[in-house]
Amino acid sequence: MGLIRFIAMASNEARAYQRGESDAYGIPPERHVSDGGGLPCRHCLRYIPQGKAYLILAYRPFPRLQPYAETGPIFLCADECPRAEDSDVMPEMLRASTEFLMRGYDRDDRIIYGTGEITPKRLVCTQAHELLQRPDVAYVHLRSARNNCYQCRIERAQKTPA
What is the tens place of the pLDDT at every residue in 66-104? Predict the structure, then answer.
């Protein structure tokens, strides 16, 4: 594995929403049918195929409420889907976009000012690696540059024992 890894939504979170549990705003996810127009699932990190059911819900990718715990809309396959494996390869759903908002967070889940940057797709891996070289950056969020929607988390790759 490379220097970074793209991290999908945890399966326990996805399954809870797929069972109809309330989202970050305390309401059940909305259920719709995909028209095939590029709706990215945050669990399998793929586009939801045309004709398949999907959910729209308010998602807060942070462990607890605090001033920097942003909440926003995401899409999720309505039926169980396999979680994308952690990988240093850019997920399928990100390949159609041209640029992203990248932002570093510390171990207390606070934004590290000065790390937020609109980044062209071709530089995402390089920028993530550079941010994760900083000792104050624990992880990076990759978000839509146009709508600020959360896409996935990026972390340092796990070191394998020699």
Answer: 999 999 999 999 999 999 999 999 998 898 888 999 999
Cα 121 to Cα 7: distance, rounded to the nearest angstrom: 17
Strand order in the sheet with 139-144: 4-7, 150-156, 139-144, 99-105, 117-120
Residue 58 to residue 40: CA distance in whole angstroms? 14
Position of tokens 């000792």?
135
| Partners of 104 in the β-ladder | 140
In the structure encoding, which two tokens stand for residue 99, read together?
């640029």
**Residue that is written with structure tokens 């989202």 in the block:** 23
Which domains are assigned to the chain? 9-77 (3.30.1740), 86-156 (no CATH)
